[in-house]
Structures are given as C-alpha cells and as structure tokens.
Fold this protein.
Amino acid sequence: MSMTPDAINRLVAQLARLPGIGEKTAQRLAFHLLRTPDLARGLSNALVEVVDRVKLCPVCFSLHDGPEASRCSFCTDGRREDRLLCVVEGIADELAIERTREFRGRYHVLHGVLSPLEGIGPEQLRIKELLTRLQEAAVEEIIVATNPDVEGEATALYLTRLLKPMGLKVSRLAQGIPMGGDLEYADQATLARALTSRREL
C-alpha cells in the first residue's frame, strides 16, 4: 500500500516516462511542483498550449504554431536557398545547426532514424515525404546531418542509395576531432574518421 496520495503517484509515473528521468528524479520533481503551485500551474498551462497549438509544418516537418495547414518560418523565409536541403533526425538537430548561423538552406526533419531493433523502418520516418518534396523542388544538394552513431549512419546510407540515382549531390556532415580536443584522448573511430575526412589547407 502506497504512503503517498494517488494523485502524486500518477504525477510521478507520468514524469518518469520522460527521457532521462528516473523514478527518484520524477519523485523529486513532483514534490517540488507540489511546493510551488504557481510553477505547477504555469507548467500545466504551457503543456496544454504546446499540445493544442504546436503543429508540424506540412513541407519540412519542423514545428510552428500557426494555423493547421500553414508553413513554418524556415519554409516561408524567402532569403533561404532552395537548392540546399539539410536532412536532420529531429527538431533539436535542426535548431543546433541553425544556431551556427552558417546554413542558409532549407530543412527536412525525419523525426527519427532507422532502427530495426525498435521496429523503426523507412515507413515510420518522413522519407516518403522527402522524396515527394524533391520531385517538386529545385534542390541540387542534400546534406545528410544524421548523428554519427550506428542508426544515424544506417539512415544516411539508406538515404544516399535513394537519392544518388535522382542525380542529386548528396553530402554528409564532416566528422572528426572536436575544436579544442586533444588527439591523445580521441577514440579510434573518431580519429579514423578525422583522417579520412581531412581537407587540404
């Protein structure tokens, strides 16, 4: 029999479903929210607003809070280059690239990567929509910006096999030693990738 009220147990259970949140952390968060009712109400209102207002862009599948069929700010920005398209795994990756202020093309968000063990195949990603989009757009180069892990590499390879026959230039983000990193501490895979991705000075 639980010593805490059912409402708190339900809150802990919901918080523990969030990525990176274990039961102990969920419990701490629940008790903190209980002690700060203004924060709890603000969080509750923000969650409802996000669910009700934020939609996927029908073109690139980024997020926007406009009417249902409207496009996001990336797609409506006339200063962006239509010939460049960056394919990313998720919204967080898109925002990370955007923060560099180096990329001025368009985006396409897959909302995941291929992962057969988790039952995620091409049908669960926005790959079909990407292919449809490419038939209608004037894209010349696709930058595949998936993460350099097993699933990201598999997704990049799958996309390359689909896109190359379409006559498109397909490139991959360079990978290697991070800025300020020491060679002696780099793992073998990173060092090997840095060597093969080297560029002329």
